[in-house]
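The authors assume throughout that readers already know how a fold can be written as discrete tokens. For illustration, here is how one protein appears when written out as sequence plus structure tokens:
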Amino acid sequence: MPARLDATRRCAAAAIALVSAFAAAGCGLGPGDRLEQVELTVTRDYGAGELLSREIGDVAESDTVMRVLERDAEIATRYGGGFVQSIDGLEADRREGRYWDWLYYVNGVEASVGAAGYELDGGEAIWWDYRDWTDTQRVPAVVGSWPHPFVDGYEGAGRPPVAVECMAGGSACDEDRARLEQAGAAVASGEPEGAIRVLVGPWERVRLDPAAALIEDGMQASGVFAQLDRDGEGFELRGLDQEGEEARRFGPDTGLVAATRRYAAPPVWVVTGTSAAGVRAASRLLDKGGLSDHYAVAVEGGEETPLPVR
């Protein structure tokens, strides 16, 4: 065999091997590396009705929230394909001066970009909800994707530290640390920069935190459909409906688990109550069964009430 032909064949074989290696690595010649599966949940009316719940395993580096959704549901888009107009025939609408639309959360945090522009890292919990947003345009954080955002972070930032701030919460503080660690959260000592804070204690103390205090400013400020008002020497919890009207008045030992966010700071969770017994009851909700698909949850006498009240 002539030396020149042999060299040519060796170069061709090397080139094929190199292309194959790049393709396997996802270096621009294919859809990208496979990512950890994501959870996709589709509900309506603040989580009251589940329309779809699925684990999606075939996720690539190039995938976005929109691509994952359109792979498993019939959708229509608007604004150049960046936003969802309908899912399985349920359309954004305006009726009698009220507005219904599709909004989504990734790891329990409200998305700040259109679904077509939200790239995935793998492991996310994606939650689409069709709701009336007339009275509350923003709900910045929710609890219904537990154990997210504690285990995988939010907005692509990776797993963050978690700071449990004990505000006269007693034994509930240790119990909540244990539940978070068991779920896979990186519970830190102190208050490291960028930590997701979990405030544990009676509302009398928790309300002194600026982020938690948003709840007293109303649902438009916090996204939490609850009001805690003075009742003698203590506080009373009132559950609100989606229009912000009082729908239920709870008793003296009520607990509340809710999440909110102040500006661009990390989300803040509150595990609180109108009494020490209420705080302990709220702490027992920190698992998937107690929080799944809920924006926030009140608990009284062992009975859980999703918020807003339906």
